[in-house]
Amino acid sequence: MPRSQRSEVGGERFEGDVDTEVNGTQAVDGNRADDRASTGIRGLDDILEGGFPANRCILLSGEPGTGKSIFGLQFLAAGIAVGQPGVCVSVDQKPQHLLNDASRFGWNLDAAVSVGMLTVLDASPYFTATRNKTKNAVPIDARSIATDLSNQVRRIGAKRLVIDSLTSLVPPDMSRSEAHDYLRSVVLSLEDNMGCTVLLTSRAGSPGDPQALCEAAEYLVSGIIELKVRKAGWSFVRTLFVKKMRGTAIEPEEYSFQIDAKGGLYVLERTRSMAPPSVG
User: Fold this and answer.
1) CA–CA dist 182, 142 (Å, integer)
2) Which CATH number fits domain 4-226: 3.30.70.2190, 3.20.20.70, 3.40.50.1970, 3.40.50.300?
3) pLDDT value of position 278
């Protein structure tokens, strides 16, 4: 039977749910170089010269239903398959639901929890606290959150951290400038203190967002991947765009991808070909 772990993060209680041979987790070519962390997504590592830059923060943005949570689980499963422990912080889903979802794609993350290769933290208590603050409540310190997460990472020697989602952790009553300063402190503290590769999910940017959180995060992180679902004729296609990846020679191309029931995301092809400019 799974047991429940509880941890304090940022002064609020995060709950780690779960526990129970690590089978079914697969990495795509593992880590191709010491300075790269394989995404675990077939076709994407080739685009990224081996994977994400190690020990950096990467932003994964998209509307609901574009595949962000699956992407995060696949990234963690790829690390576990090559002996890299991971931590997942979930705001919008219960930990056990995430683990159940992972099993449907062939990733036995319950087993990873039971052998200490994965910790799943429920951040919903923190989420509730940020939205029910009284005027006498103690302000939430971004550096304290990063420190508490760092303790969780060090406890299992994690090399990968997924926060789903980053924007949900920002108190909604902050002004735009306060929210940007808060986000800057979180991202910089994560890169400075974690010693692991961090994947941050975010809703897509919107002109109606008074805090402009996605826009602010894009300036702070080392890489940005955008996931979309768009109409193509009579059907719909899922697309992936690498908007930014520091230290990587990427082309500004959009790629189509699919989500397979037993394997997760995989990149198909460019959605349009661009001929190189003629010389002479």
Assistant:
1) 6
2) 3.40.50.300
3) 40
